[in-house]
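Quick one - first record:
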Amino acid sequence: MKEITSLFSHAFPKVQVHLDSNFASTSTGFRLRIREALHEIVNEERVLNLEKLPALKKEFVSISHCASLGGFVIAANGVGFDIEETQRVSSQVAERMKNAFDAAAPTPAAFWTAKEAAFKALGDKQPSIMSEIVIGNWQRVGDEQFKFTSDCGSGMVLVSGPWTAAIFLLV
């Protein structure tokens, strides 16, 4: 978990990354716990409303969680974040989001988290289906670290321990 935070913070110095096992989907009250942590940072009451997606006045936020870990990222521009347990994402699952123009991804989990992060970053400009987003230009930039692009921005996927995570920034 600390490795993911550290690597993303280094790659995206203007993005705040917050991960915690207490934000995992198997943790009772995880949604509220995530929102309370977000509220402590941004001091905006509306982020506590679990009935609505969190929207900040001057920044952008994206939340993700899997069974063992969850978190959120905050950035000045549109941002998307996704985290998954690597073993959970099979090639059959990833195929459901495939576009004929997608470049071959390093792993199914890398592809899945990249698509999810790009989709989340688009906010109210999201296409009706995720397969409309084209992911390409995969580049290995380190051990289990990959950059990728889409026509609306770029991102990075990290694999650390049991998790694969992605951050995507709009341009």
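second record:
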Amino acid sequence: MTKFLFLPLLLFFSTAIFAQEAVFNLKSTEVNVAEVAATGYSRDSTANAFYIYENGHSRFDNGNDYNLLTDYEAKIKIVNKEGFDHANIKIRLHNGSQGKEKLHDLKASTHYIENGKIKVQHLSQDQIFTEENPDHDLVKFTFPAVKPGAVLVFSYQKESPCLLYTSDAAD
């Protein structure tokens, strides 16, 4: 008897998990209503925040001294106040003998529900800071209007003349 119940229960729970996963757009940084309305993550019920989507790719720019261009984009769900640290972003830019890495097209926005409607707050240029160090610079920003339930989206392009140096896309 228990063998007959095991298979239907297994199918039910796996369907329930995949149904919740379908709420999240795992293929792009586009934000949907269900993502903003979601109150948790089935794979980790203790998560305070989590990455819904993250993508990066690099290529050589042959029109600009063969610099390495890295495009990066991410989407983060803030579940509760304990996840607010994920709204603080630091991007490391290497300073080496071949030159300095540069950051282009930094865009960031916070999507949240207010009075039953989705609102979007964009990061302004005066909210972006650069901390200069001898061997690297840190570009820092904090997403505006962060609240529990918010979805944070950001993207940028890093240009590097240092072909032999690699780093994490976001530190």
